[in-house]
Design brief:
Blueprint (H helix, E strand, L loop, with lengths): L10 E5 L24 H8 L7 E5 L7 H13 L3 E6 L6 H10 L3 E5 L5 H8 L5 H14 L4 E8 L7 H10 L4 E6 L14 H13 L6 E5 L10 H12 L3 E3 L8 E4 L4 E5 L3 E7 L5 H7 L1 H9 L19 H7 L13
Helix pairs in contact: 2-3, 7-8
Organism: Actinokineospora bangkokensis
Protein name: Radical SAM core domain-containing protein
Keywords: 4Fe-4S, Iron, Iron-sulfur, Metal-binding, Oxidoreductase, S-adenosyl-L-methionine
Length: about 350
């Protein structure tokens, strides 16, 4: 097993701001009320302590509400040879901003796309129908960019369960060649719980993979949160993945090679499945947090114990075995709290 230590932390996801112009029911953002914002200098002081950093993802909230900060961070990373990605809902971009992002050196624009028409999008998100054409424009403009790689992400939950193939074809027709499918993750700190059973998730995945558009690859993330090797569900899914080179899934790197940095400086293993603060960069540098956190070590080690591992750390204490849980009951982690800085 790869050991925790200097040189292994290759990626960070930075929640530049918690502000957003949407209110998604499934949002896993750590603290939507936090109003602190990381400056470019703050980010520089963090990444300069990470000698083997390869990738920085900028997220939120809607990160493009702080466009100038995003632009500055991208320039900073480009100068250091670090690749960058922005996760966005795509409603705030225009030609001028695209030009500036291209000039700054942005590598990837990652858009949320769960619908194929303005009416259903508006009804679900409770926003004006004018929002959807803005998303379509942003996706198409990113596809046309000579330097930016366009990726769309669709959450697999009850809203998209019966329309995954439709959304996939819509994305392919827009010119998208990388379509990420994100398993829904319960975010109890935000009041969101699962909407689908494992059987329903597996059914939707099989249907989507069976109808994959040959122009567009499918990337599945967070599969291990639901399907472990050797289980009946995995035995059902694995042949579909093996038969199609355009269907890709990878092991989760959260905690092992990637950490999340919140806008107030808090460091988390993962904002989605484990919004558990293990330090703050305004108190301790990130590499030291990565090297010394017992919570982090327990989480990473537990990933190799299929009998006890679960991403849903709201219910499982990191590293706690099934026997320990049976003896004392599952440990409910405290809800995230904002540091008084």
């Amino acid at each position: 097993m790869q050991q925790l230590g200097a040189g292994n932390l290759r990626a960070i996801e930075i929640g530049v701001t918690s502000r957003c112009n949407f209110r998604c029911s499934y949002c896993g953002a750590y603290d939507l009320l936090e109003r602190k914002i990381l400056s470019v200098d703050d980010v520089a002081s963090v990444i300069d302590t990470l000698p083997d950093l390869e990738r920085v993802k900028l997220s939120g909230g809607e990160v493009l509400l702080e466009f100038e900060i995003c632009e500055g961070i991208i320039k900073l990373c480009t100068e250091r040879g670090i690749s960058t990605q922005i996760n966005s809902n795509g409603t705030l971009l225009n030609e001028e901003k695209f030009d500036r992002l291209e000039a700054a050196g942005l590598d990837v624009l990652h858009f949320s796309l769960n619908h194929t028409d303005a009416q259903s999008h508006s009804a679900f998100y409770k926003v004006t129908e004018k929002m959807f054409p803005k998303i379509v424009y942003s996706v198409q403009r990113a596809v046309e960019s000579p330097t930016i790689d366009a990726v769309v992400e669709t959450i697999l939950f009850n809203e998209t369960e019966k329309r995954m193939t439709e959304v996939h074809r819509f994305a392919a027709d827009l010119g998208v060649r990388k379509h990420e499918i994100q398993m829904e993750i319960p975010s109890l700190h935000q009041g969101y719980e699962n909407t689908m059973t494992r059987d329903a998730l597996a059914d939707a995945i099989v249907d989507l993979v069976s109808h994959r558009d040959p122009r567009t690859e499918l990337y599945f993330s967070c599969l291990s949160a639901y399907f472990h090797a050797g289980t009946e569900h995995w035995k059902r899914l694995q042949p579909y993945f093996s038969a199609d080179p355009g269907v890709i899934y990878s092991s989760c790197i959260e905690g092992k090679a990637q950490l999340h940095l919140h806008s107030n400086g808090d460091v988390m293993i993962c904002e989605l499945g484990n919004p558990d603060v293990i330090g703050n960069v305004f108190e301790t540098d990130m590499l030291s947090i990565y090297n010394t956190s017992d919570r982090l070590k327990a989480f990473v080690h537990s990933k190799h114990d299929e009998g006890s591992f679960s991403c849903f750390r709201h219910f499982d204490f990191p590293g706690q075995t099934e026997a320990q849980k049976a003896e004392g009951g599952p440990t409910l982690l405290p809800l995230p709290t904002v540091r008084g800085k």
